[in-house]
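Most newcomers find our protein records easier to grasp once they have seen one. There is nothing in a record beyond a sequence line and a structure line. Getting from the letters to the tokens is the skill we practise here. An example says more than a description, so a record of this kind follows:
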Amino acid sequence: MTPENVGHNKAKDALIKKLAHDFLNPTLLDEALHHSSMAGRSNERLEFLGDRVLGLVISEALMTKYPEADEGELAKRLGVLVSRHSCSQIAQQYNMAAPLIRDEHNENIMLSDNVMANLCEAIIAALYLDGGLEVASSFILKAWTPMLDDMTNVPTNPKSDLQEYASREGLGAPSYKLIDKTGPDHAPIITVEVSLDNGLRLSAKAGSKKKAEIEAARSLLEKLLTGIVETS
């Protein structure tokens, strides 16, 4: 066994311990840990399923936590909790990328929010397929409870916030453009760029055009507020 394999196995064992689930079918976790840059199997199909499982569990948790909230408030809270950024944060907290199998020689493969979020959702799907909704739900609620508890106020809409900020600062109206669409139809990766009339721009990736627009708006607004921006 090579040093690389030893390191991978140790990282995977550490992840399994953090997930608190012994897989009856270890190949499910192996599939979740295969990035799409690798030939053969990848975690894209699992990411597709994990996104839905995560949405279901968090939706139920929100309805329980906020019994008086209407659909609009629940949707705003859900959007933040299942966003690329939130999933990426969980992946980082659990060090999910340590055993990730990817093409180390491809400079385009980076541990971006999108890659990390896909990995997190793929692992959720592996938990679901191996142990059922109870196992997946147990992990999701444990991992996401701090975020749920910290969300005291109703989140705002990143696209609306960006539009209001840009209008107030005289930066022009945000414009959204579809840049790229890759991956299979069942698990697409959509890249959208948001730009302002004065040349400020930023792109983001997600599993749908709507989600990509929200992520792009959120990221550009953060950069505007911190003074770190790109111009064309």
About this structure: The mean pLDDT is 85. The beta strands are 175-182, 189-195, 200-206, 230-231. DSSP finds eight helices and four strands in the chain.
